[in-house]
Structures are given as structure tokens and as C-alpha cells.
Amino acid sequence: TGLPPSTAHRLIAQLTACALLERTAHGDYRVGRTVQSIGAAGGLTTTLESLAPLLLQDLSHALDVEARLGVLTRHDVAFIEKTHGGRPATTFAHGTTAPAHATAMGKALLAFSPPSVVDRFLARGLPAYTPHTIRSQAHFRRALAMTQRSGVAVAWRELELDRGALAVPVSDRTGHVVAAIEIRVDNPTAELARVRPTLTVAGRRLTRELSFTLSS
Q1: Using the 8-state DSSP alphabet, how is residue 92 labeled?
Q2: Residue of 126, 199, 129, 201 lying closest to 166 (CA atoms)
Q3: Contact 56, 67 (CB under 8 A)
Q4: Which residues contact 34 (CB under 8 A, 6 or more apart)?
Q5: Is the separation of the CB atoms in 179 and 48 below 8 Å?
Q6: Which whole-number Å values give the CA distances from 88 to 19, 58, 83, 179, in the listed order?
Q7: CA distances from 183 to 61, 71, 74, 86, 155 (A)
Q8: What DSSP state is assigned to residue 93?
Q9: Dist. CA 112–CA 178, nearest whole Å
Q10: Are 71 and 178 spatial neighbours (Cβ–Cβ below 8 Å)?
Q11: How far is CA 81 from the centre of its chain?
């Protein structure tokens, strides 16, 4: 490259931190997961992964929160996230998942899913992660109904005792909900008025971008 070794080392370190490169056990470097995911099998997840990171970064910066984007799998919610600091958003290749019934993004996804999908999740049971996790099927169905009416899903101390979350659905061009954007907050009830406008705009923005990309 003709670059000074110190410059090359700095650039390699930055690329590795962003998962564009990764270091092998032998001390060599190879293409990282972020680049690999670009050339991976196509589909909705790949499209979301290409559109969501910048939005999650903007959302995290605007509200000073951790932001996630989740998609429903057969058993749980697979998600990518942007945490605090300068690290980039993760990728679906990391395989990070969370239980649907104990997260705001899971509720946002199930609230707008076909009844058969909801029935399948309920048939598997609602394991408790904290004393506040919803265990009753009737109570959970009421939570989904509230999410449908308000357009915002709420989870408070259901997965972690000291954390809560708010989430909004994301639709494709046909109007089907395909993902959910979640922000993690200390007290969803207290912070709802402050964060709801920005979170709603983020959901609508990704819906528009996703609809345009899939129809192009």
C-alpha cells in the first residue's frame, strides 16, 4: 500500500473494531463478519441488516439509549443492536436472540402476527426470567391487544430487573410487520412521552426505506 507501518496498523485496528476485518488465531487478518454478511444469502434479513445500522446509530445518539432491531424466528427474536459508545451495530451473524414474550420488540412483533403464530408461541409456555415476567396467557394476550391499540410495546423488568424497553413495529410494502425497533430504558412509563415521538419516526422511516428497497 505504500503506507507507513504505524498508519497501516491504525487502519487495521479500526477495521477490526468495526468487524470489517477479524484476526485469526495465527495472527493474520481476514474479511470480517460485517463484510461477509453483505455477500451472504439474500432475503429480508439481509435487507434489514443493510438499512438498520445507521438508523439504530441515529436513534441511539438522539435518545442516548441502546437501540435494537429484532425479527421473529420460530422460537424467539433474533436481533442486532447499537450499544453506547463508538462501536458499530452488531450483525445477525452474531446469532444474538431474546425471548419474544419478555421483550418489547417481541411483543411488537407478536401483536401484529397472525393468531396461529401467537398460539404457537403460547403453546411453548411463558418462562419466567424475573418475578415480573408475564406468565399468564390471558395477561399476555391483553398486553398484545394494548400494543395493537397504542402502536408501542412496553416491557418493564420482565427480562432484567433493572431495565425496561419500548418498541414499535416495522412493516414491509405490503403492510405486514416484519421487524421491530426497540430502545432500552430504565423506566418505560416515565420515559414514554419523551422518547415516543423519536421512536415512532424511526419506525416509520425504516418502513419507508424497506418498502422502497424491496419494490425497486
Answers
A1: G
A2: 199
A3: yes
A4: 18, 19, 20, 88, 91
A5: yes
A6: 8, 11, 8, 20
A7: 11, 15, 23, 17, 10
A8: G
A9: 9
A10: yes
A11: 5
Q: What is the pLDDT along the chain (216 residues), one digit of tens a residue?
A: 788 888 888 888 888 877 778 888 888 888 776 555 444 444 566 688 888 998 999 999 999 999 999 999 988 999 999 998 888 889 888 889 999 999 999 999 999 999 999 999 999 999 999 999 999 999 999 999 999 999 999 999 999 999 999 999 999 888 899 999 999 999 999 999 999 999 999 999 999 988 876 555
pTM: 0.78
C-alpha cell at 63: 435518545
Exposed / middle / buried, residue 145 (Cβ in 10 Å: 0-12, 13-18, 19+): exposed
> Under a CB-based contact definition with an 8 Å cutoff, are residues 129 and 101 in contact?
no
Give 203: exposed, middle or buried? Use CB within 10 Å, 0-12, 13-18, 19+.
buried
Give the pLDDT confidence score for residue 36 in this predicted structure.
55
CA distance 214 to 109: 20
Q: What is the pLDDT of residue 45?
A: 65
Structural contact between residues 70 and 180, judged by C-beta atoms closer than 8 angstroms: yes
CA distance 207 to 163: 27
Q: Which residues pair with 134 in a beta bridge?
A: none
The grid coordinates listed for 73 are: 424466528
Residues ≥6 apart with Cβ < 8 Å to 42: none
Which residue is associated with the grid cell 477479524?
22
